[in-house]
Amino acid sequence: MMQDRLRSTIDAYPGLIEDAEDLEIIQKSMVSRLKAKLRLFDGSMLSIREVRIKEEVIAYSYYWLRSNETVIMGWDNAPHHKGVGTCPHHKHIGDGVEDSQERNLGSVLRFIKNFLA
């Protein structure tokens, strides 16, 4: 189920995503965990981590990395930035943290696609 969802999301972004690497899916009872790296057309990578209970994403991190693995931008919902208006959802840009409306893999990929356009 989770692998099908990931494949569907990847297929929705032809030309942006070249390949999925380091795919790890663990499903136990109602909890599933996904770890993967998506290699993008420009050589950058998107590191993905999701934890779901049933079908609801309860924890996520999506980190867009340069080819040397330094962070371009990252999105997550760890509740450690209480001052952010969209807490726990936030994005890391440089040394700063900002509000984030991107809260799932599809919205992050849309953001990256528009950013690179």
Based on Cα principal axes, name the global outline: globular
Mean pLDDT: 94
What share of residues are in beta strands? over 45%
Terminal Cα span: 31 Å
Query: In total, how many beta strands?
Result: 7
Helicity level, as a percent range?
10-25%
Number of helices: 2
Q: What Rg do the Cα atoms give?
A: 14 Å
Read across the widest sheet, the strand sequence of neighbours is 1-2-3-4-5-6-7
Order of helices and strands: HEEEEEEEH
The major β-sheet equals:
7 strands, antiparallel
Structural class: alpha+beta
Low-confidence stretches: none
Number of domains: 1
How would the blueprint of this fold be written?
Blueprint (H helix, E strand, L loop, with lengths): L1 H10 L5 E12 L2 E10 L4 E9 L2 E10 L5 E6 L13 E4 L2 E4 L5 H12 L1
Antiparallel strand pairs: 1-2, 2-3, 3-4, 4-5, 5-6, 6-7
Can you give a write-up of this model?
With 117 residues, this protein is an alpha+beta fold. The chain has one domain. It has a 7-stranded antiparallel beta sheet with strand order 1-2-3-4-5-6-7, with helices on one face. Helices cover 19% and strands 47% of the residues.
Provide a compact summary of the structure.
With 117 residues, the protein is of the alpha+beta class.
Notable features of this structure?
117 residues, alpha+beta, seven-stranded antiparallel sheet, 7 strands
